[in-house]
Amino acid sequence: MRRASLFTLATLALLGSAPLAAQAGNSCAARGAKLPAAGAWSEYKTNEGTMRMLYLGKETGGERLELSVDGSRGAMVMQMVVPSYPYEMTDVKEMVMQRGTDAPMRMPEQMLAMMRSRMPNASSVSEESCRRMTEVGKERITVPAGTFQTTHYRDSTGGTDVWVAASVPFGAVKVVSRNQTLELTANGTGGTTKITGTPQDMPMGGPGGRPRGK
Q1: Pairing of strands 200-201, 105-106
Q2: For domain 2-25+35-197, which CATH number applies: 2.50.20, 1.25.40, 3.80.10, 1.10.10?
Q3: pLDDT averaged over consecutive 10-residue blocks of the chain (214 residues)?
């Protein structure tokens, strides 16, 4: 279970670099990255299965994003609230996770604080990562979702190549890193959460742990 949780976090960080890359350049930080309209989603095939990114919308606490994965380690849905976009993983304000048909679990503040402390200061969804991206060129590429006219960017320090198109929610058409390849299979609007049920407080032992006092 722990490995699946880390995979979802890592993949979210990787995809987060795509819309940033679309804004890359000397004025990247000033421009900022743009989220798609609420309900917009993109689905990808990865080395380990399928993944869907969904923007649920703005709320009092910030922007709510959702990542769902389905692969060899089972199905997992993760929601998180960040204060703004782009963001650092250390800025995550809320996280809810649901594995398969289990009840959704909300990470308590103490556990969330521990997660923040272990995150790098500059994640791949930060404005710093945007500034590292350099344009390779305009390329027409074909993925399972179809053929797209894209801009190809490369993060020379992180070994990541990103192909983006403004018409695709979250920007990413294809992402290739040292250990992972993602390709767009579908995208659309009107997406809704895959979280079912009312989130419960996660025990400090993690999603597979036991509630306190039991």
Answers
A1: parallel
A2: 2.50.20
A3: 41 46 40 73 91 92 90 87 75 89 91 73 51 84 97 79 87 85 95 94 64 41
